[in-house]
């Protein structure tokens, strides 16, 4: 019997948060049928790979759709807020 | 004029080594000090703290930080603080510090803070011991920040 979507989502929320290397709390997870979709911004490509591994390990019968984006390092903004 | 750079949630890990420092190379031309709001690491391990320390060692402006909940995850918050402090980062937790800039003196108080919410969705110090401990932790964080601000003001602004 297939897990209810909210249980699938909760298991992955917990796995991503508590993995010793990840600590990812901001990823949005939505499960529907046998598809799990991950969205949001994560710290690095390494984190994206690790999240996919965890999702595939826990739910091998599901298709994992990874729409997350790794944060890119950018130079600081050129402008500044003038607080008077 | 006082120029303050601030960044939060940098979430550095061992894979981040050497990635942030280049973006900070010209910081002294653009800012008098740098504030780091918490979540400096993914999981608060000493190894990750070493990466943070390395990225901010040579920024050449005063760096003042508070930790975040991620920096507590491995139960090594004191070690994380020590590692950052050793490279000159001032880590505030219910404390304050002073930075002298060409534009004047800046007083900064900081704390990690905690949960508790705001009305109408605010936790009450009521019921189970665990619930009361949760709320009191947030209240204590707020009190420590207030005390740090009051103490700094009495010492430096209106002695």
Structural features, described:
The complex is a heterodimer of chains A (84) and B (159). Chain A is built from 2 helices and 3 strands. With 84 residues, chain A is an alpha+beta fold. Chain A has one domain (5-70): Alpha-Beta Plaits (2-Layer Sandwich). Chain A is elongated, with a radius of gyration of 16 Å. The mean pLDDT of chain A is 89. The model of chain B has no long low-confidence stretch (mean pLDDT 95). Chain B is 34% helix and 21% strand. Chain B is globular and about 50 Å long. Chain B has a 4-stranded parallel beta sheet. Chain B has a domain at 4-112: Metallo-dependent phosphatases (Purple Acid Phosphatase, chain A, domain 2, 4-Layer Sandwich), CATH 3.60.21.10. With 159 residues, chain B is an alpha/beta fold. Classes of the chains: A alpha+beta (84), B alpha/beta (159). Chain A binds chain B through residues 20-25, 43-44, 46-47, 73-76, 80, and chain B through 3, 5, 7, 11, 13, 15-16, 19-20, 22-24, 27, 30, 41-44, 70, 73.
Shape designation of chain A: elongated
Radius of gyration of chain B, rounded? 17 Å
Which CATH-level-2 architecture of chain A?
2-Layer Sandwich
> How far apart are the termini of chain B?
24 Å
C-alpha-based Rg of chain A, rounded: 16 Å
Please report the first level of CATH classification, the CATH class of the domain at 4-112 in chain B.
Alpha Beta
Main sheet of chain A, how many strands, which sense, barrel?
3 strands, mixed
CATH topology of the domain at 4-112 in chain B: Purple Acid Phosphatase, chain A, domain 2
Low-pLDDT segments, ≥5 res of chain B = none
CATH homologous superfamily heading of the domain at 4-112 in chain B: Metallo-dependent phosphatases
Q: Report the strand count of chain A.
A: 3
What profile does the largest beta sheet of chain B have? 4 strands, parallel
Supply the helix-strand structural class of chain B: alpha/beta
Which ranges of chain A are low-confidence, i.e. pLDDT below 50, for 5 or more consecutive residues? none
CATH superfamily of chain A: Cation efflux protein, cytoplasmic domain
In DSSP terms (H or I, runs of 4 or more residues), the helix count of chain A works out at 2
Helices and strands of chain A: which structural class? alpha+beta
Question: What coarse outline of chain B follows from CA principal-axis ratios?
Answer: globular
């Amino acid at each position: 019997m297939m897990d209810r979507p909210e249980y699938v989502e909760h298991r992955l929320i917990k796995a991503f948060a508590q993995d010793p290397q990840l600590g990812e709390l901001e990823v949005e997870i939505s499960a529907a049928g046998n598809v799990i979709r991950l969205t949001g911004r994560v710290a690095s490509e390494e984190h994206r790979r690790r999240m996919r591994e965890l999702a595939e390990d826990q739910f091998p019968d599901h298709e994992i759709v990874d729409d997350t984006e790794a944060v890119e390092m950018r130079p600081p903004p050129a402008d500044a807020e003038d607080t008077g | 004029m006082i120029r303050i750079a601030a960044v939060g949630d940098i979430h550095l890990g061992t894979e981040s080594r050497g990635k942030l420092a280049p973006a900070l190379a010209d910081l002294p031309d653009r800012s008098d000090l740098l504030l780091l709001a918490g979540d400096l690491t993914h999981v608060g391990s000493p190894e990750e703290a070493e990466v943070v320390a390395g990225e901010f060692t040579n920024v050449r402006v005063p760096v003042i930080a508070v930790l975040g909940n991620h920096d507590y995850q491995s139960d090594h918050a004191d070690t994380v603080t020590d590692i950052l402090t050793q490279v000159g980062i001032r880590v505030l937790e219910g404390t304050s510090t002073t930075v002298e800039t060409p534009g004047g003196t800046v007083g900064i108080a900081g704390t990690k803070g905690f949960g508790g919410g705001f009305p109408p969705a605010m936790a009450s110090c009521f019921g189970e011991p665990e619930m009361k401990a949760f709320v009191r932790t947030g209240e204590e964080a707020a009190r420590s920040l207030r005390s740090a601000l009051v103490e700094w003001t009495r010492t430096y602004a209106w002695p």
